[in-house]
């Protein structure tokens, strides 16, 4: 069994028999607007920018951010997934990858690469090549 707990703008994706399945929720302010507003905060949407909590933070759930604590939650989204013989790999990555590639594109891009470290490097290079402007941190686990 694999337990994924997620807070922030990273994502976990598992591949089973080559099919990508998202295991975590992207905690974006626009999708959690109601809970942010219920805590007294607001979500801004300025042109050519991402939605932000109180005009500052681009995630709806986070650790830290003392000045925003009362408007956020650090309650993780938790999912449990069975690891079995059909499991190929898991990708854990920040939004710099996911803004440049879909879940399935990322899986397809590395499914034939045996070395997990090289697979993560390949995904990083691909996100940069696709002009990702966000942070890019990637871990690949191969089974």
Summary keywords:
single chain, 143 residues, alpha+beta, Phosphatase 2c, domain 1, 2 domains, four-stranded antiparallel sheet, two-stranded antiparallel ribbon, 4 helices, 22% helix, 27% strand, globular, PPM-type_phosphatase-like_dom, PPM-type phosphatase domain-containing protein, PPM-type-like_dom_sf
Question: Can you give a write-up of this model?
Answer:
- This protein has 143 residues and is an alpha+beta fold.
- The chain has 2 domains: 2-26 and 76-142, Phosphatase 2c, domain 1 (4-Layer Sandwich); 29-71, no CATH class.
- The protein is built from 4 helices and 8 strands.
- It has helices at residues 33-38, 95-98, 103-110, 116-129; strands at 2-6, 10-16, 19-22, 43-44, 52-53, 77-81, 87-94, 138-142.
- The strands form 3 sheets. A 4-stranded antiparallel β-sheet has the order 3-2-7-8. A two-stranded antiparallel ribbon has the order 1-6. Strands 4-5 form a two-stranded antiparallel ribbon.
- The protein is globular, with a radius of gyration of 16 Å.
- The protein starts with a strand and ends with a strand.
């Amino acid at each position: 069994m694999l337990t994924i707990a997620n807070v922030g703008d990273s994502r976990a994706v598992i591949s089973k028999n080559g099919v990508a399945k998202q295991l975590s929720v992207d905690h974006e302010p626009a999708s959690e607007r109601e809970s942010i507003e219920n805590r007294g905060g607001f979500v801004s949407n300025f042109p050519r920018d991402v939605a932000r909590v109180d005009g500052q933070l681009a995630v709806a759930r986070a650790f830290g951010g003392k000045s925003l604590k009362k408007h956020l939650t650090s309650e993780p989204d938790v999912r449990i997934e069975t690891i079995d013989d059909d499991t190929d790999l898991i990708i854990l990555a920040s939004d710099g990858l996911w803004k440049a590639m879909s879940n399935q594109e990322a899986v397809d891009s590395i499914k034939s690469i045996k070395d997990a470290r090289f697979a993560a490097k390949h995904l990083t290079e691909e996100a940069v090549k696709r002009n990702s402007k966000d942070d890019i941190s990637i871990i690949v686990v191969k089974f």
